[in-house]
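The protein record minuted underneath.
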Amino acid sequence: MDIDVRGPRFGAAVTTLVLAVVLITGSVWLLAWQTLAFALGAAGGVARSPYGWLFRKAVRPRLGPPTEFEAPQPPRFAQSVGLAFAVVGLVGYVLGPTWLGLAATGAALAAAFLNSAFGYCLGCEMYLLVRRATVRAQ
């Protein structure tokens, strides 16, 4: 079943805010929270992530009905990519080197910002490239 495109963009906006605060404060706990949010989104889809739940309960009822939908697989893959960067960021912040944590968190922040501000989902585009490559290989 397709999902409302506004949900992943809302999640990306919250993620942008969270990761910006992580970069400003260096909060390992906040990055751990974001890692958990990515993990839940990757495991259950963006609709089952904490930000998806917040969108459904608090934001969507205040909006008009959705006019655009998308397949859930690309945003779910994007959550997996975000999870990988967040895990690398945690490793950098906790075990070092700190620059690794900063770089990985910054990369995840850049991708989330692109999605929230412009509707361009890098992880979704990666998903489509992987799908095309695997279909041709078969």
About this structure: The chain has a mean pLDDT of 96. The two ends are 26 Å apart (CA to CA). The helical segments are 6-25, 28-44, 50-59, 73-95, 98-118, 122-137.
